[in-house]
């Protein structure tokens, strides 16, 4: 089980950030996610595996400046 | 501790007006030549059209100068104002001051939005804005005492040179046991010897028992300040509450302030953690997206970026409340205590460094090929202490380093300094030289535009190449984002009124990462709405970070997520609650549009403000060198073939660079056309008479100026 924005979600062995975002509405708007405190950017979504029990926040927008 | 003394040159007493609905109702004018202080009423027209903050500054500056005024002329004024919402303690980000003057870098108007307590203390002392003009032959301090209702012009002797020691000394001296009631505006010796001077605005940190600082960095305002003989402006005020602005509807203000403050407390820890790590979160993200400038904006990525990212500064920052205004829940103004510099006058001493923020990390770090967090801290510290803008210093030294590596200059020109990328010791030495006005540093301190001329004339360097790689536009050095792959952000920098600073439009992610604006029309719309809304913060005395750096969790489900309309609506409620002037989101944009166009016309008056001045160095648009092209050849080859239909088989890199350049420069010119049209400007980038009439800024002198420039009625 993982928690995404505070809500429980099932976890699967080998699950990547890209896999998770396939199940999320408006996923194209997320360029960065935080997994257990570490930020992961879109160029690394496909290769980043999510560990079981992970606490994940989908960062809605990077505004800059 | 340095012994210093003051001699009273002039004392002006006044009756302090009660602030009503966010306005004191008068402006303060200090003439350093005549040693005179006066107050002028704020008119209804000023409030209606210019709102406050930057709007008031521009209006005062417009009347102070003529079209022939240069930055160092006595009539050039430094104007400082907060705004009607400035000084509200409960609403996050509500303590900003906005500073304007004619810039020694650009010759046109520069504006800078800065934290610290000065602007609110100035207003609560009885003045919506301050205009300082004239010059004093010596060293002078202006003391605005809102408690005793006096403004004093003091001749100073023996004050410390650097801004840190100066501010602490003045805070102790004027605080009279209540240092929290003091805010100091000051600069340092670097401002006097370069064109890159910044201003330090202070607030007192009761937990750490020391003055803290934010910088009005851009465009050399500190240089104008020093040139006037000013050492400091000090404001003194008493306690602040939600009532101090006497809002029109206190209950409505409390309600909306609580909503926004609580949302930040809840969401910031889940999103960017600004209350813990400031803007350092941007370093790894920008690097991942090839947007972190490295080696004078050649590249956007470096494998060593993690060495200067948020994880390092999380460990270095001193934990605690770091709000640059009372009660701000973003509280992103972090610092490092007990840092020990290894160079310069503070070598071996423990000091407190206010910063670094993202811009300083990128400007004084990655863009110089320096990936040492301690070297960045030391540059941050000395730039602040010397009164130098870390962005212009960083971008300026980056240009020098590339020129050095390309052989355009060599150690015989630099006084023996080896200045290849990554040379942190000599980068620091340049900063010390800037402060002393000595050696090659005094040339670097002239800024990139003047360095290009000096390198060509004195050292025979290739002018055309320097035009391409010297990262300045309008005379101002670029702030620290890569723009090569975002046409909209090229516009965000190139069309910005003061020069390439990202506070007007930061569209890289929306354009390049999210692809929100694939057409010219969509980019033009973004380059209308975002600069206008961002301008509004500087009219009101606000920070823009609470608007879109921490956003509602359901924001992505809204119709226009980039605008974070829930917050825009809160800001409209906030404005209405304080001023009593009912406003909706569209009204906020209209307020800005008037001031924004007025500033464009102000530039025109000073000899700028037309299409030719919106040009960019090609480094901001595409790859200049074969090294750059070949580092991302897959990307560029694909664009040439798929986007532009070019058969690249058999073509050398130099030919492909030339082709790509032709296409990309054409795109930028088309973008200008689309944006000018959207903004109601002529093809030469000048607001039309119809536009100025619509916005209510058709003052006789504005109309005469436009007609003289051939804008038809």
How would the global form of chain B be characterised?
A: globular
Q: What value does the average pLDDT of chain B take?
A: 97
What's the main sheet of chain A like? 5 strands, mixed
User: What fold name goes in the CATH topology slot of the largest domain in chain B?
Assistant: Aldehyde Ferredoxin Oxidoreductase,  A, domain 1
Instruction: Give the N-to-C terminal Cα separation of chain A.
Output: 36 Å
Placed side by side, the strands forming the largest sheet of chain A appear as 2-1-5-3-4
- Computed CA radius of gyration of chain A, to the nearest angstrom: 11 Å
Question: Briefly, what is this?
Answer:
The complex is a heterodimer of chains A (65) and B (713). By secondary structure, chain A is mainly beta.
Features:
heterodimer; A: 65 residues; mainly beta; Ubiquitin-like (UB roll); five-stranded mixed beta sheet; 1 helix; 5 strands; 29% strand; globular; B: 713 residues; alpha+beta; Aldehyde Ferredoxin Oxidoreductase,  A, domain 1; Aldehyde Ferredoxin Oxidoreductase Protein, subunit A, domain 2; 3 domains; seven-stranded mixed beta sheet; six-stranded mixed beta sheet; 42% helix
Overall description:
The complex is a heterodimer of chains A (65) and B (713). Chain A has 65 residues and is mainly β. Chain A has a single domain, classed as Roll (Ubiquitin-like (UB roll)). Chain A contains one helix and five strands, in the order E-E-H-E-E-E. Chain A has one helix spanning 17-21; strands at 2-4, 7-9, 32-35, 38-41, 55-59. In chain A, strand 1 and strand 2 (7-9) form a beta hairpin. The longest helix of chain A is centred in the first third of the chain and has 5 residues, at 17-21. Chain A is globular. Chain A starts with a strand and ends in a 6-residue tail after the last strand. Chain B is of the alpha+beta class and 713 residues long. Chain B is built from 28 helices and 17 strands. Chain B has a seven-stranded mixed beta sheet. In chain B, a hairpin with a 4-residue loop joins strand 2 (26-31) and strand 3. In chain B, helix 7 packs antiparallel against helix 22 (565-579). The radius of gyration of chain B is 24 Å and the shape is globular. The model of chain B has no long low-confidence stretch (mean pLDDT 97). At the A-B interface, loops of A face helix 9 and helix 19 of B.
């Amino acid at each position: 089980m993982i928690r995404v924005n505070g809500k429980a979600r099932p976890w699967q062995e080998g699950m990547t950030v890209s896999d998770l975002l396939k199940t999320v509405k408006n996923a194209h708007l997320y360029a960065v996610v935080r997994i257990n405190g570490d930020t992961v950017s879109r160029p690394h979504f496909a290769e980043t595996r999510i560990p079981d029990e992970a606490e994940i926040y989908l960062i809605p927008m990077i505004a800059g400046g | 501790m340095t012994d210093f003394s003051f001699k009273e040159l002039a004392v002006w007493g006044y009756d302090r007006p009660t602030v009503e609905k966010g306005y004191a109702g008068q402006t303060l004018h200090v003439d350093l030549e005549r040693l005179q202080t006066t107050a002028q009423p704020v008119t209804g027209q000023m409030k209606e059209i210019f709102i406050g903050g930057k709007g008031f500054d521009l209006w005062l500056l417009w009347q102070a100068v003529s079209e022939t005024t240069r930055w160092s002329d006595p009539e050039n004024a430094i104007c400082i104002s907060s705004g009607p919402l400035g000084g509200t303690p409960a609403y996050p980000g509500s303590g900003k001051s906005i500073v304007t003057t004619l810039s020694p870098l650009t010759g046109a108007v520069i504006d800078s939005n800065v934290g610290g307590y000065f602007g609110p203390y100035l207003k609560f002392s009885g003045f919506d804005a301050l205009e300082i003009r004239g010059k004093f032959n010596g060293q002078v301090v202006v003391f605005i005492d809102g408690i005793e209702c006096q403004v004093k012009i003091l001749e100073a002797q023996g004050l410390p040179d650097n801004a840190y020691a100066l501010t602490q000394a003045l805070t102790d001296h004027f605080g009279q046991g209540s240092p929290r009631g003091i805010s100091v505006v000051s600069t340092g010796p670097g401002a006097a010897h370069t064109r890159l001077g910044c201003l330090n605005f202070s607030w007192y940190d009761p937990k750490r028992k020391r003055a803290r600082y934010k910088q009005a960095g851009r465009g050399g305002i500190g240089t104008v300040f020093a040139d006037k003989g000013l050492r400091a402006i000090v404001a003194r005020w008493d306690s602040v509450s939600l009532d101090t602005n006497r809002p029109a509807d206190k209950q409505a203000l409390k309600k909306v302030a609580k909503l926004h403050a609580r949302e930040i407390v809840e969401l910031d820890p889940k999103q960017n953690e600004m209350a813990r790590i400031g803007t350092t979160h941007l370093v790894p993200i920008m690097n991942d997206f090839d947007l972190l400038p490295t080696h004078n904006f050649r590249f956007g990525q470096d494998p060593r970026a993690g060495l200067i990212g948020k994880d390092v500064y999380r460990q270095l920052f001193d934990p605690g409340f770091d709000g640059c205004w009372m009660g701000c829940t973003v509280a992103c103004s972090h610092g490092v205590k007990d840092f020990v510099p290894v160079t310069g006058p503070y070598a071996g001493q423990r000091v407190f460094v206010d910063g670094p923020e993202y811009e300083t990390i990128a400007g004084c770090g990655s863009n110089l090929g320096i990936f040492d967090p301690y070297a960045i801290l030391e540059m941050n510290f000395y730039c602040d202490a010397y009164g130098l803008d870390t962005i212009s210093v960083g971008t300026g030294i980056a240009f020098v380093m590339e020129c050095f590596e390309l052989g355009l200059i060599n150690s015989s020109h630099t006084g023996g300094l080896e200045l290849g990328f990554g040379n942190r010791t000599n980068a620091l030495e340049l900063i010390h030289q800037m402060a002393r006005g000595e050696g090659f540093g005094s040339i670097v301190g002239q800024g990139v535009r003047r360095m290009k001329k000096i390198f060509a004339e004195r050292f025979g360097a290739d002018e055309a190449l320097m035009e391409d790689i010297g990262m300045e536009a309008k005379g101002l050095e670029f702030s620290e984002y890569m723009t090569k792959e975002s046409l909209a952000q090229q516009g965000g920098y190139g069309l910005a009124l003061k020069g390439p600073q990202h506070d007007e439009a930061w569209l890289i992610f929306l354009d390049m990462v999210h692809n929100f604006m694939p057409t010219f029309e969509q980019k033009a719309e973004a380059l209308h709405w975002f600069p206008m809304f961002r301008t509004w913060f500087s009219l009101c005395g606000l920070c823009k970070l609470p608007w879109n750096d921490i956003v509602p969790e359901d924001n992505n489900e809204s119709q226009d997520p980039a605008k974070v309309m829930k917050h825009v609506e809160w800001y409209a409620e906030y404005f209405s609650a304080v001023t009593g002037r009912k406003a909706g989101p569209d009204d906020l944009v209209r307020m800005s549009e008037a001031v924004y166009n007025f500033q464009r016309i102000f530039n025109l008056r000073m000899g700028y403000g037309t299409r030719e001045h919106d040009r960019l160095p090609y480094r901001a648009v595409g790859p200049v060198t074969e090294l750059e092209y070949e580092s991302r050849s897959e990307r560029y080859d694909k664009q040439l073939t798929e986007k532009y239909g070019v058969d690249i088989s058999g073509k050398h890199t130099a030919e492909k660079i030339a082709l790509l350049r032709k296409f990309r420069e054409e795109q930028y010119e088309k973008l200008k056309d689309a944006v000018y049209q959207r903004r109601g400007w002529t093809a030469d980038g000048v607001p039309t008479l119809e536009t100025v009439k619509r916005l209510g800024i058709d003052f006789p002198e504005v109309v005469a100026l436009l007609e003289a420039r051939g804008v038809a009625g």
